Amino acid sequence: MPTVNLNYGKLKDSYLFAGIAAKVNAYAKAHPDQKILRLGIGDVTQPLVPSVIAALHEAVDDQSKAATFHGYMPEVGDSRLRSAITAYYRRRGVELSDEEVFVSYGASDELGDILNLFDRSLDAVLIEPAYPAYADANVMEGRTIHYIETSEADGFTPAPPRDPFPALIYICSPNNPTGAVFTKERLTQWVEYANSTGSVILFDAAYEAFITDDALPRSIYEIEGAKTCAIEICSLSKTAGFTGTRFGYTVIPQALVRDGAELNAMWVRNRTTRTNGVSYIQQKGALAVFTEQGQREIQELLSVYRQNAKTFMAALDQAGLSYIGGKNSPYIWMRCPDGRTGWETFDLLLEKAQIVGTPGEGFGACGTGFFRFSMFADPADIKEAGKRIQSVFL
Ligand code: PLP
After folding, report:
1. Which atom of ligand 1 is nearest to the CA of 236?
2. Is 154 exposed, middle or buried (CB count within 10 Å of its CB: 0-12, 13-18, 19+)?
3. How confident is the model at residue 252, as a pLDDT?
4. Calpha distance 204→111 (Å, rounded)
5. Are 39 and 357 in contact, with CB atoms under 8 Å apart?
6. Distance of CA 179 to CAs 16, 22, 156, 205, Å?
7. What pLDDT is recorded for position 71?
8. Which of 102, 235, 239 has most ligand 1 atoms within 8 Å of its beta carbon, as the pocket-test mutant?
């Protein structure tokens, strides 16, 4: 009889970021005078916006006086913050009740924790290339995973499987790593598939704020029927620079019922058992993001990364390189020139241009031959990287 969860032994070695770090460190040691431009990991570089900083300071001061001190917060979130989030959705035409919004410490926590709601015999469906944590969280649980491989032919936004079966379906849009965005038509097919098979979609909307094209859905609840089949997982990490501050939110509609159980009520029970809520300080900081002023400021923040993408896409265009993403997404997914693999392109760009990106095969086998650039880098580095990439490929 095992003592530990033996499923951990089935996890593939996470060679991707460790492999990148080892190669970059070795290069930096051998070439200490060279400036390495890091367009690899998707961490943000710009600071928090002024209204968030003011709110965080104020929150710390509140905790210093008995009259304004806060102890435990409601496990599911402060009521003003939940209302501010439903108002954020309402501005985009999505009606939710405050009880359908749960605050969290971030999307990663939720993507793992939410699996507790589902039977382990329910298979997972993953669209590859994919954010590696989806597979790992399910492998840890011993769940069977079905992979759907995508390519340029379907724009990396595939149709649902032909054979209908109930599953836990992961959809990430705008996508990490491909930058592809699911259209309303494509998402409608998935919603219909999920409702007809009794599946549940886990919609990862961590990058929704990057969508500027009004025709593209930022929330799965813009699709009719989604409230009976989808959970939406969101984060302020990339929207408002909270990667190190931590804050996210999850939407579970009350209409989402499986086996006679309301998933919303189950999650209330889960949160009140397994957490004691998100800190008062972080919730106050997050609330500032949803004010009018906060929204104006984060648009300015996002415009830095959007401009990065424009600058870099112009450089790729001039070099005749083909790619997707960058338009409604902070990621650019480049087809590796001259039939190289992602790792070969990685070595070439590091050696010849001192640019670090991420090899596509790190996100699944069908990512081979592609390369991801993150637009969260410093604007000066992006400009320089654009020049250097041209010197390699022109
Ligand atoms: N989902 C996707 C697709 C991501 O790319 C990331 C972070 O890079 C996350 C979730 C995790 O976000 P958080 O910082 O909120 O945990």
Report:
1. 15
2. middle
3. 98
4. 8
5. yes
6. 19, 26, 9, 12
7. 97
8. 235
Q: Whole-angstrom Cα distance, residue 47 to residue 279?
A: 20
- Residue located nearest, by CA, to atom 3 of ligand 1: 176
Residue nearest to atom 12 of ligand 1 (CA): 107
- Length in residues, the chain: 394
Q: What is the pLDDT of residue 62?
A: 98
Q: What is the largest CA-CA distance in the chain?
A: 66
pLDDT recorded at residue 210: 98
Task: Indicate which atom in ligand 1 lies nearest the CA of residue 243.
Answer: 14
Task: State the distance from the centre of ligand 1 to the C-alpha of 108, rounded, in angstroms.
Answer: 6
pLDDT score for 185: 98
- Which of 393, 247, 264 has the alpha carbon at shortest distance from 321? 393
Among candidate residues 387, 342, 365, the one with its CA nearest the CA of residue 40: 342
Question: How far is residue 180's CA from residue 326's CA, in Å, rounded to a whole number?
Answer: 9
Going from the C-alpha of 273 to that of each of 114, 254, 256, 368, the distances in angstroms are 13, 20, 21, 43
- Residues having CB within 6 Å of any atom of ligand 1: 42, 106-108, 131, 172, 176, 204, 206, 235, 237, 243, 248
**Of 45, 127, 131, best ligand 1 pocket probe by most atoms within 8 Å of the beta carbon:** 131
pLDDT of 281: 98
Strand 331-335 to strand 370-374: parallel, antiparallel, or no bridges (unpaired)?
antiparallel
Residue 215: the pLDDT is 97
Q: What is the pLDDT of residues 368-382, one digit of tens each?
A: 999 999 999 999 999
361-385 exposure pattern, b = at least 16 Cβ within 10 A, e = fewer: bbbbebbbbbbbbbbbbbeebbebb
Please tell me the distance from the alpha carbon of residue 372 to that of residue 336, in angstroms, as a whole number.
10
State pLDDT tens for residues 333-362.
999 999 999 999 999 999 999 999 999 999
Q: Which residues pair with 358 in a beta bridge?
A: 372
pTM given for the model = 0.97
What's the chain's Rg over C-alpha atoms? 21
Residue matched to tokens 């010849």: 352
Low-confidence ranges of the chain (pLDDT < 50): none
